[in-house]
Structures are given as C-alpha cells and as structure tokens.
Amino acid sequence: MKRTTIFIDEKAERELDFLAQRRGEPKAMLVREAIAEYLVRQRDEPGTPLAFVGIGRSGRSDIAESHEELLFRQSPAIAAPGGPETGPDSTRPRSSRRRSPPR
Fold first, then answer.
1. Is the pLDDT assigned to residue 57 strictly greater than 90?
2. Is 93 exposed, middle or buried, given 0-12, 13-18 or 19+ CB atoms closer than 10 A?
3. Would you call 43 exposed, middle or buried from its count of C-beta atoms within 10 A (0-12, 13-18, 19+)?
4. How far is Cα of residue 97 from the mean position of the Cα atoms in its chain?
5. Quick check: is 1 in a domain?
6. Residue 31 sits in which domain range?
7. Is there a contact between 78 and 93 (Cβ–Cβ < 8 Å)?
8. Whole-number CA gyration radius for the chain
9. Phi, psi (rounded to 5 degrees) for 70
10. CA–CA separation, 50 vs 11, rounded Å?
11. Which of 9, 57, 93, 98 is deepest in the core (most CB within 10 A)?
12. Which of 72, 73, 63 is closest to 93 using CA atoms?
C-alpha cells in the first residue's frame, strides 16, 4: 500500500470523522473504500473512450515499438499499396478518389 496526502474541506472532514466513529473504522479505510468504488464506476461507465484498450493479449512484446507499422499493414483503408506512407503527412490517410481539375 502507498501513503498519499489529500486535501478536503472542513465540512467533508467533519462528516468523514462522524462516519468513521459511527462505523468504528479508521478514516483511511473509508477513503480507500470510496476511491475503490469511484474507480470501478469510472472504469465501467459506458462510452468511456478507448475503454477496450489493454483488455486482450496479442502474444507480442513489440507492440509499443512497432504499432504504426502494424496498424498500416493491417488496415487496407489506411495503408498505401507499398506500405505505410512516409513524410510530414504520413499520419493522414490519402483519399483514393482523384479530383477533377477546375473548369
């Protein structure tokens, strides 16, 4: 367990003291319990962006180092026929439609 310091207003501290006395538990235990419940709610909240990240195992150990290569190689919508693009605009996919010259 790691020690940390938090700042709370006086009213919240009085209520925490009262609750700790009523339950016969240390304030630290109540704070840990409240934080744990909060984290579970946040993790399980629907619509959390990228909540799926890290839920599976690929069996690879080089994902962080080679993520761009893997993404470009695996996604036909982004990948150019010869592999990933290079240069200053390489992160933006190119449109496959050609524009007509202005008349």
1. no
2. middle
3. exposed
4. 34
5. no
6. 10-43
7. yes
8. 26
9. -65, -40
10. 36
11. 93
12. 72
